[in-house]
Amino acid sequence: MKCTKILIILLACGTSLYAQKNKKAAKIKPRNEFVTELMAKMTVDEKIAQLVQFTADGTTTGPKSGDNFIEQIKKGNVGSILNATGVEYTRKLQELNMANSRLKIPLLFGYDVIHGYRTVFPINLGESASWDPALAELSSKVAAAEAAASGIHWTFAPMVDIARDPRWGRVSEGSGEDTYLGIQLAIARVKGFQGADLSAVNTILACTKHFAAYGAAEAGRDYNTVDMSERVLRETYLPPFKATVDAGVRTFMTSFNEISGVPATGSKFLLRDILKGEWKFDGFVVTDYTAINELIPHGFAKDSIHAGELSLKAGVDMDMVGGIYLKSLKKLLAEGKVTEAQINDACRRILEAKYDLGLFEDPYRYNDVKREKQEIYKKEYLDAALTVANKSMVLLKNSNNVLPLKKEQRVAFVGPLVSDEWNIIGSWAATGDRNGYAVSVEEGVKKIISDKSKISFTKGIEIVDQRRDMMKAALDAASTADVIVAVMGEFENMTGEAASRTVIDLPGIQKEFLAELKKLGKPVVLVLMNGRPLTLSWENGNMDAILEAWFPGTMGGDAIAQTLYGINNPSGKLPITFPRTLGQVPIYYNHKNTGRPYLGSKDPEQKYKSRYIDSDNSPLYPFGYGLSYTTFEYSNLKISSKELTANGTVKVTVDVANTGNFDGEEIVQLYIQDEVGSVTRPVRELKGFKKTALKKGEKKTVEFDIKPDDLRFYNIDMQFVAEPGDFKVFVGGSSDAGLTTEFMLVK
Ligand code: GLC
């Protein structure tokens, strides 16, 4: 009997080995050969179908489209589907497609996996506060592994829009206001999603969006007009996009907005001249949701046929949900308004992506039920989410070291988000669970404090609702505590898409509740869950400590609790400026000096300067700012030479000491000012940063290299060059760092 069993096992192994060998033998031809042969067999209708994407039922991420996607798949009219998730559902749709595809061309499944698929990481603005590309790559890698295990081939991420206006709800999805930080994180996220091998079953296509300058919408109102010089476009907004092309990103998404009169989705300048021309991008371009249709209300296309013509000519390869390519391209081709070469180019780019994913070899390779069960919520993924959440925490204020809390203290936890498991994972949370799986602050605290008599949890108020009937219970609980912790912020849907606000205070009566808590005469710690900078001047003046937690994701409650009790020493730095008042917006650190720079209260000229009569010019919390439970001292700033030659390098070194009582990490930042240029230059720009771990009492020397390439900008003739002249260097733990030295760039 035993012998038979062994034989069966050996046989099974042999069979599977043979199958694999045989499958290996079935490997298809090299990509170019395969795609060329396939396209030679395709009809024009079949080519156009590849340029068509519809949305599956259920979640829509924009205005509902009328087309019945199932019917369209049956007719062989679809190349890609978005918003379908899960191995079973995507397999079913793929089977329906393959049964109706004459040439067996598989569907491509896309989905918004922005900061996690099921294990949800902090929103990207929060993750960006870690200033840690390795963590951004890790979170994207985990997101890809879970999404790919659930039948997803393609994510619409990273979002790399530079944003300087906190009224805009989509600041939550990006890396904040700075181009240099944005570049590092954009590259990391593309690497995380796509990995080294797209044919691996735990990697997916990335999609750099929204091309371009979507974050510069006037008045911070989503989808609004963008108008800027080509210099600002190329110097501030485009570099993160270009960096992802150099990092090998395979798809781009056009933005909804116009730029200086031309909608991005119809912009030949953006798509063919810059992206596919100058940058030699060889992937494919999908529009944002119905963005081709929107060329009509933009006043750029007279009807949908015209919109289709303009988009294909501009360089759009795939029509997301609009249904216009399907209805217009064959007619436009017959009328000679578009060419077969344009259709072929778009089709080829899409087929090449499907080939590289391995979908022609096996359309169901991402549909493994067992692997889906194994991958979702893997402990190592949840651990990664906790690590990223901890590193995204930014300590904004900590008077008298009221934080970290001590275990023996009686702490009253209050506020609308104190037990929240819904908003904590933020917007764009893909298939993240909002009904109990995420760790709330209450749950996180209870894991640390075993003596339940030391802690209490009472909401007191809602986020927006003005009801006050619960406030007394919370005030009563707080009145017997040593310390009060108020967990407050925004609803998750008050940021993300179509969520611009004209007031960016804490919503509702949260500030009023804080004032009541303050009257109790105990230390009050404010913990914030929000997706944008808020105006916190009153809070900064009245709270004893403020911790910016953003929307910290599935493990957010653990991260907040571990930070409050000192298990995690916060090390995050703001990736975006927090203004004193909304009236200062747009406000960002790398601004121009103007001809009448205001030097603050010490300025001998107080009136005729670029200033406000009712506010200081400085922000409440500047870009790059963040405290620690310990303190760091900078000293001994040196530069290897006062002259930088055209092919040389100067080294900047600085000593950083941990002069406090906690081990910690400091994000040491290097800023450079080009003092005079053929066009005016920002007062300073981030050109390097290094996260440095320092045990208490430890001192390290941190080093930066500066090369001429770091100094390039678009000069008066729009040439991207470095101009000889004087440069200032600033080093410190924030963009208002004062430690300075200088050098000269010589011809
Ligand atoms: C939405 C968003 C975009 C998203 C797309 C697909 O409207 O603007 O970021 O990727 O549609 O959901």
Automatic annotation (TrEMBL):
Q: What is its main location?
A: periplasm
Q: Which domain of life is it from?
A: Bacteria
Print the keywords alphabetically: Carbohydrate metabolism, Glycosidase, Hydrolase, Periplasm, Signal
Catalysed reaction, written as an equation:
Hydrolysis of terminal, non-reducing beta-D-glucosyl residues with release of beta-D-glucose
Q: Name one Pfam family in it.
A: Glyco_hydro_3_C
Fibronectin type III-like domain location: 666-735
Annotated protein name in UniProt = Periplasmic beta-glucosidase
Q: Which organism is it from?
A: Flavobacterium akiainvivens
